[in-house]
Amino acid sequence: MRPGEREFWRVTNTAADSVLDLQYVFDGVPQTLQLVAVDGVPLNSQDGTEPAAVTPVTHFTMPPASRVEFIVSPPPPRVRLAQLTTLRVNGGPYFYNLPQRPLATVQLLGGRREGTKEDRSDDHQIGRSTAKSTTQQRFAGLGTAQVAATHALYFDEIPLSQYFMGVEGQTERLFDPNAAPSIVVTQGTVEEWTVENRTPENHAFHIHQIHFLVKSQDNFEINGSKQAPAITGQYLDTVQVPFWDRNPNHPFPSVKLRLDFRGPDIGDFVFHCHVLSHEDAGMMAIVRVQPSSTDKGENGHH
Predict the structure, then answer these.
(1) Distance in angstroms (rounded) separating the CA atoms of residues 38 and 20
(2) Which CATH architecture best describes the domain 7-108?
């Protein structure tokens, strides 16, 4: 990096199973990450909110497949070691040991380039939306939209053997691509899903084709975990649900999600845990989006 010049970074967790908890540190002291977007969606820019605004955090949790974009400032010359690190992640007694470790080291190179804007750490705006009305914005009104149906989903497992993406009221089953869909919805509707973790290890809920609004992260602390920063009220396609501590008096950790099926996608697609070893062992299910009665046009399955 060059002195006085902020940079825009994109980070993707392409690991099969590892969860990252990003932190930017100068000589061991956490620095602020100015979050711009998560899972490809600018923060605070939807539902007619304009202009978008960055969200400052000192760490950010990334389950497998998560993407994050943020702005960072260069280290002052007096800093001896500047690094992007991942903090230790407690994934529960059945999850992988994920220690704190460095991901990248930052060095200062030369002086500021001519014509570059001076670093302004108080600049929280990231540009104005080009939409002229909320009806032209993706996800507009999702937080207050009428909910057509609710579903209770859960992660369950026989450790190191079988992994289930369950739906309350249905018999648990391993993923079968030829099976009937676990959930059927209608294009143009909005649904609210609660996803519980009933296992002693972390899982990452992911759905293809659409995004969801994170309404809440519940029962994390009582089970020994912390809520992920900066994602409640934002639009993601992957979210971590931490482990249950197996205390029968403690409720299961869960997330409440508002899912947007108002887009063009119809047909069958999947939702699953994005920890690859869990997904491959059966922790996946199918959702079918049927065309609305007013739109019976052709659209291929995904």
Answers:
(1) 14
(2) Sandwich (2.60)
pLDDT of 210 over the 90 cut? yes
Structure tokens, 126: 């990231």
Categorize the per-residue pLDDT at 122 as very low, low, confident or very high, splitting at 50, 70 and 90: very low
Let me know: does 280 contact 291? Beta carbons within 8 Å. Answer: no
pTM for the whole structure: 0.89
pLDDT digits (tens, 9 = 90+) for 173-206: 999 999 999 999 999 999 999 999 999 999 999 9
Which CATH number is associated with domain 142-290? Answer: 2.60.40.420
Cα–Cα dist 281/25, whole Å: 37
Quick: pLDDT tens for 40-83. 998 887 665 556 689 999 999 999 999 999 999 999 999 999 99
Domain ranges of the chain: 7-108, 142-290
